[in-house]
Specification:
- The chain is an alpha+beta fold.
- Helix content is about 55%, strand content about 15%.
- Strands 1-4-3-2 form a 4-stranded antiparallel β-sheet, sandwiched between helices.
């Protein structure tokens, strides 16, 4: 009985701790949709006006600015992956660990669309939300990237690792961080 009481107290303590961060987690997660929508709209508009080549140029030139615009209010937002196109987006150790967990969870059947993770780490609240590979991603991130487009990607991103994906693969994750007390 004493162990049951101890377990209940521990569970309540962890629950209270989690509840105290829930508003911040919700706040951070709410930043992802507008960020994702602007990134996708920018790439789509560029693709529609100039094909995949223009989309690569727009992504390379405008994504950092969009990322900066959506960071604020104490939050830093970005994207990362296990296989990055832009080395500036390489995961740190914590992000790599979470991405590996996402990959394992997906392999166990959990839908990527619902996958997220939040944790307090060294005075920061860190959040990640999985990005599944969609059909629209395959022109630049799939197995059969057109040779002309592949050459352009190589020009902009000589260290590119972000090809060979299939629909439903873990493409990467949105990553957010904020200092907390």
């Amino acid at each position: 009985m004493r162990y049951l009481s101890l377990a209940c107290c521990l569970a309540l303590s962890l629950s209270a701790q989690a509840e105290s961060t829930d508003p911040l987690v919700a706040q951070g997660m709410a930043l992802i949709a507008p960020f994702q929508q602007q990134l996708m709209a920018t790439v789509k508009a560029a693709r529609d006006s100039g094909g995949p080549q223009r989309a690569v140029q727009a992504c390379q030139q405008l994504a950092p600015q969009i990322t900066h615009e959506h960071s604020g209010g104490g939050w830093q937002i970005g994207r990362t992956a296990l296989r990055v196109r832009n080395p500036d987006n390489a995961p740190d150790a914590w992000e790599r660990k979470v991405l590996e967990q996402f990959r394992q969870r997906a392999a166990a059947g959990e839908p990527l669309e619902q996958m997220r993770y939040a944790e307090r780490v060294d005075g920061e609240l860190r959040l990640m939300k999985a990005i599944p590979t969609a059909e629209a991603c395959l022109a630049c991130h799939g197995h059969a990237v057109e040779p002309e487009l592949a050459a352009l990607i190589d020009q902009y991103y000589p260290e590119d690792q972000a090809r060979g994906f299939e629909v439903g693969d873990l493409r990467g994750a949105f990553t957010l961080r904020r200092t907390v007390k």
